[in-house]
Design a protein that fits this description.
Helices cover 43% and strands 12% of the residues. The protein is of the alpha/beta class. It folds into three domains: 64 residues, Orthogonal Bundle (Arc Repressor Mutant, subunit A); 199 residues, 3-Layer(aba) Sandwich (Aspartate Aminotransferase, domain 2), CATH 3.40.640.10; 121 residues, Aspartate Aminotransferase, domain 1. The chain has 17 helices and 14 strands.
Length: 496
């Protein structure tokens, strides 16, 4: 064996690992005497004390045994199991997985993301004022003046943040809840996963909007729910058409009434009331994912379903991660009173609690008014960004990708010409380093025109402008169809 002096691994660790490997693989068989510490140190150019420390460590681990006056010997290894007579045909024992694990194999997580690419979804704008406030609050939380709890905390979340969330939701979303009904989560996905664990048994029916947030669909599928897609119309989830063809009633309904994902419409008040009355009458749970409600025009936002619910049928899910930055992984669930305790117990079993440090910073961020000011800035910025992008696409990709103005949010849909494949278009754009989501990949049963979901937050205008140029080139390269602007330029050139 030799020691690599250029390696960042310390020589003692190199020696220990080399000896372990040689013993484990049988190159140093049981009973063999090792060279003395003095000889090993001289041959490897190490201090004798280093070698002695390694030999003592391997003795503790059971790889070698000392014999007084004789040195160190390779420890006896357990006898190898006898090989079958016909080793080539011997069957290995089955690697048994649960039914749940078999499902999860089909639902592999996406590969780790690097820097966001235009027009990737889920990235918030992080401006200098936010960073300044967050850093100052983080520094204070870690200072000696902090009230940061350094021990295990409440599985439901720190009481101060739960009070702040309850107060915020009452003022901004018309929610009706006490802090005891709030359980903090690591984002909306964990909230939905816990709700599915509490409310669904395998085989129970669950309604999901069609099209639907794909992760929500996968979470309910992993819970072994019997998923039933419900079409959406211009007012969101179409309860009347679902009731006409779906029987019996489901155990759970997942909906995004504030801004349907991905089509973007808002469920009007009469339909909200009808949905709640039906759920109360037949005993259905409603999971309300209040997606992007913070970026709707002020004064025009309808109360959350949770605030209108009088029968205790709504589980309300929200997140700070999409509002501030994705790696924050901090969200919340508002539960009916009789569900709060079992939900907190399930939260404890999954990963005990959210980070107390992040909860402390987030509490101060809300209570001191930074959160409200940040949302106000982002509401204006995102509205401006959407208008800018629509104008750019209408000039550069007119006739190929049509984006219609919508209520404010973090994404828009670009509609492709009929007959196109949005999956093929998204694949061609990905090759040009442009990230889009084909609408058909979010569609379960109801056919829709081809479209691409485009996120316009968290990407600089310069990066998006360059991406639009690559989109134009990719579309022409794949289809031979020039954009309207290119056709006009060619016509002008011919006329000249």
């Amino acid at each position: 064996m030799s020691i690599d002096r250029a390696s960042p691994t310390p020589p003692s660790r190199q020696l220990a690992e080399a000896l372990r490997q040689s013993i484990s693989e049988g190159r140093l068989p049981s009973g063999v005497r090792l060279p003395s510490s003095r000889v090993l140190a001289a041959e490897l150019g190490l201090a004798r004390s280093t070698v002695v420390t390694v030999l003592e460590q391997l003795t503790t681990e059971g790889f070698i045994v000392p014999r007084r006056g004789s040195g160190y010997f390779v420890a006896p290894l357990p006898p190898a199991a006898p090989k079958p007579a016909n080793e080539a045909t011997a069957a290995a024992p089955p690697r048994l997985l649960s039914r749940h694990a078999a499902l999860l194999r089909e639902l592999r997580p996406p590969p780790p993301r690097g820097s966001p690419r235009p027009f990737e979804l889920g990235y918030a704008e992080i401006d200098g004022r936010f960073m300044t406030s967050w850093k100052r609050l983080a520094s204070r939380a870690l200072s000696g003046r902090s009230r940061l709890p350094w021990f295990y905390g409440d599985a439901s979340g720190e009481p101060a943040l739960r009070r702040a969330v309850a107060d915020y939701l009452a003022a901004a979303r018309g929610a009706r809840c006490r802090p005891e009904q709030v359980v903090l989560t690591n984002g909306t996905q964990q909230g939905l996963s816990l709700a599915a664990r509490l409310l669904l048994d395998p085989g129970d029916a669950a309604w999901v909007e069609d099209p639907c947030y794909r992760s929500a669909y996968d979470i309910l599928r992993a819970a072994e729910a019997r998923l039933m897609p419900v079409p959406v119309d211009e007012h969101g989830l179409d309860l009347a058409s679902a009731q006409a063809v779906r029987n019996p009633a489901p155990r759970l309904v997942y909906t995004t009434p504030s801004r349907q994902y991905p089509l973007g419409m808002t469920m009007p008040l009469p339909r909200r009331i009808a949905l709640l009355e039906w759920a109360a009458r037949v005993g259905v749970w409603i999971v309300e994912d209040d997606y992007e409600s913070e970026f709707q025009p002020q004064g025009r936002t309808l109360p959350a379903l949770q605030g209108l619910d009088r029968a205790g049928r709504v589980i309300y899910l929200g997140t700070f991660s999409k509002l501030l930055f994705p790696s924050l992984r901090l969200g919340y669930a508002v539960l009916p009173e009789d569900l709060a305790e079992p939900f907190a117990a399930a939260r404890h079993l999954v990963d005990r609690q959210s980070s107390a440090l992040l909860q402390t910073i987030m509490t101060d961020f809300i209570v001191e008014g930074h959160f409200a000011r940040h949302l106000k800035r982002m509401r204006a910025l995102y509205a401006e960004r959407q208008g800018w992008l629509i104008d750019l696409l209408s000039r550069r990709l007119k006739g190929v990708l049509e984006v219609r103005p919508t209520e404010r949010g973090m994404y828009a849909i670009g509609w492709l010409p009929r007959g196109w494949s949005d999956v093929a278009a998204a694949r061609a754009l990905a090759a040009a380093d442009v990230a889009t989501v084909p609408l058909s990949s979010l569609t379960l049963a109801t056919p829709r025109p081809p479209g691409l979901v485009l996120g316009y937050t968290g990407h600089s205008p310069a990066a998006m402008a360059r991406a639009v140029e690559r989109m134009a080139a990719a579309f022409e390269r794949e289809t031979g169809l020039a954009t309207r602007q290119e056709l006009e330029l060619r016509q002008d050139h011919l006329s000249a």
